[in-house]
Amino acid sequence: MLYLELFTQGLVQGSIYALIAVGLTLVYGLLRILHVAHAGLFTLGGYLGVLITNQTGSLGLALVVSMIVVGVLGMAIYRLCYQPILDKPPYVALIASIGLFIAMEEIYRIVFGPFGISYENPPLQDSLPIAGMYIKSGEAVTAIGALALIGILALLATKTRFGTAWRATVTDPEMAESFGINPVKVRYMNFFIGSALAGAAGVMVALLNNLVEPTMGSVPSYKALAIIVLGGLGDVRGTLIAALALGVVEAFGTIYLGDFLDRDAIAFAFLILVLMIRPQGLFGRA
Amino acid sequence: MTMFEIGAYELTLITTMGIAVTFALSLNLITGFCGQISLGHAAFYGVGAYTSAMLTKAGIPFPLAIIGAAAMASIIGVIVGLASLRVRHDFLAITTMGVGFLFLGIVRTWDFLGAEMGIAGIPGSGLDKSGYAILVIVIAVVVALFSLYVKRSWMGYVFDAIADDEDTARVIGIDVARYKLAAFAMGTALAGVAGALYTHQVRFIDPASFSFVESITVLSMVVIGGIGSVWGVIFAAGVLSVLPQWFQFIDDFKLLVYGALLFAVMRFSPGGVAGMVKALRGDKKNTKKEAAA
Asked: Concatenated DSSP letters for B237-267?
């Protein structure tokens, strides 16, 4: 039974990782940028989720509003931060992004205080008996919600005109442009969607922990980077599998390796190990 | 009779500055000269710090402990370098970041290394405050001279070629792996020295001193100074290391300032301070030429 519980815990955690990492991988696919500041948007999503729920009492409204606000901010980051430096060597955008992320965390600390905020009436705290074990309904909602959002994204990418344009731009921007696709529009949409998903992940993590703090984005941001590298950089399907796999590896690792390494170290040991065997990532092409 | 009195506070500042310069120059060898982005350099600083702390606590004399710290950091650096030969660019950045987290995971969980409590009661250097400041400055100067020497040597040109375009470097017959490992070996050894110097200044270490933020701080020094520029990096490390100590109000906003600076420099002047100075000089020369013509 312990195995099943660990596995479920891993999947819940993994689905949150997936929600964050998909946005990152989309940005990488389009622009070849490791968008570290993405995790700053995730944190903002968490804050908005708690603040709006506390004000209005509606978690659903909080989720929608934070996804929109965070999405718009994501577009602003693209316009102000990345667009002007796209022609520079890749480390320039990477370091700018790290700088932006650190600054964002500090701004949250200054604006919302260093100790974090919680739900006044934390929603979804009851436990559901499922398959002989008890799962917090917050966890169930998180995992299902995350996978549903990613499912919607997959439909959007495969069934709509925008999705086709988007995939074409990721695969071959110049070819896409010559077919009349506006790559700038695609990038804005891409940042909006990816950031909105990160915002949703923020709301969900806030729900799971009943706490939002300025540095809550740090660990997921580095983990999400590890995940998109494992997934082969820019490969959405690879990213999803890597995210769920990492969640499960961590859940088991903390139980069986906890005396030697902490959770983050286990994740990165796994990353380094995989990269030594497959330098292009689990699912990347050589 | 001395010209001006130097108090204990100034000596601490000078020591801090010297250690930061050594640490930043050590990363400049790897990232600046050889083009290998490292987001986990604090791990090697930490390896040096922990090694030296353990050695001196076991009764090994201070000078030997520093050499031991350099050797240990360099050995681990070469192992990481060997592993990193398989990955490049963004993959390398994330792998080195992983190395940083792996180091933190180890020092946080292993009781043998003090776990979260860290190591206290580390022996001092045997020198007084001014003696230690002089030692640190001498080491920083030696490291700076060494950096300048490497930059202008044959190896420096090879590093340059690798940083510029690895594949082309390989095509013209450069043994890329060998030189990359050399950069890792030298850079991590010097980071180990910086870590050891830090250990015996503060005489207490814990995992928090070697976190990801420290890796980013040292990377900001290299980047803000100007990637690959020895003078630029010395300047940036010197200023950024004492800024928070000089202005208490900056200390509260230290990370905000670092973050904003990193972002602003990359966004508006990716060459850093060195790049700005170069541009200004270039403008002057051009104006002179125009005036002459």
From this structure: HHHHHHHHHH-HHHHHTHHHHHHHHHHHHHH
What lies within 8 Å, CB to CB, of B254 at 6+ separation is B243, B244
Residue A95 pLDDT = 83
Please name which of A203, A281, A249, A156 lies closest in space to residue A16, comparing C-alpha atoms: A203
Write down the ipTM of this complex.
0.77
Which two tokens mark A192? 């909006």
Q: Which of A101-105, A166-170, B133-137, B288-292 has the lowest mean pLDDT?
A: B288-292
Q: How far apart are CA A48 and CA B284, in angstroms?
A: 51
DSSP code string of A145-177: HHHHHHHHHHHHHHHSHHHHHHHHHHH-HHHHH
Quote the minimal CA–CA distance from A180 to chain B in Å: 30
In this structure, of A16-25, A179-188, B42-51, B253-262, the range with the lowest mean pLDDT score is: B253-262
Q: Is this structure's pTM higher than 0.90? A: no
Distance from CA of A149 to the nearest CA of B (A): 27
Q: Which two tokens stand for residue B207?
A: 């995992």
Q: Which chain B residues touch A85 with a CB distance below 8 Å?
A: 266-267, 270
Tally of CB atoms within 10 A around B95: 26
Distances (CA, A) of B112 to A150, B7, B107, B122: 44, 37, 9, 15
* A66-98 CB burial, b ≥16 within 10 A, e <16: bbebbbebbbebbeebbeebeeeebbbbbbbbb
Higher pLDDT, B67 or A227: B67
pLDDT, mean of residues A168-189: 82
Q: Which of A82, A42, A12 is nearest to A222 (CA)?
A: A42
Q: How far is CA A126 from CA A129, A274, B114, in A?
A: 10, 38, 40
Amino acid present at B152:
R
Contact A261 B98 (CB under 8 A): no
User: What whole-number distance in Å separates Cα of residue A280 and Cα of residue B205?
Assistant: 37
In this prediction, residue B5 has a pLDDT band, given cuts at 50, 70 and 90, of: low
pLDDT digits (tens, 9 = 90+) for B175-190: 888 999 999 999 999 9
Which among B105, B109, B263 has the least Cβ separation from residue A103? B263
Residue A265: which of B104, B260, B263 has the nearest Cβ? B104
Give the single-character DSSP code of B207: G
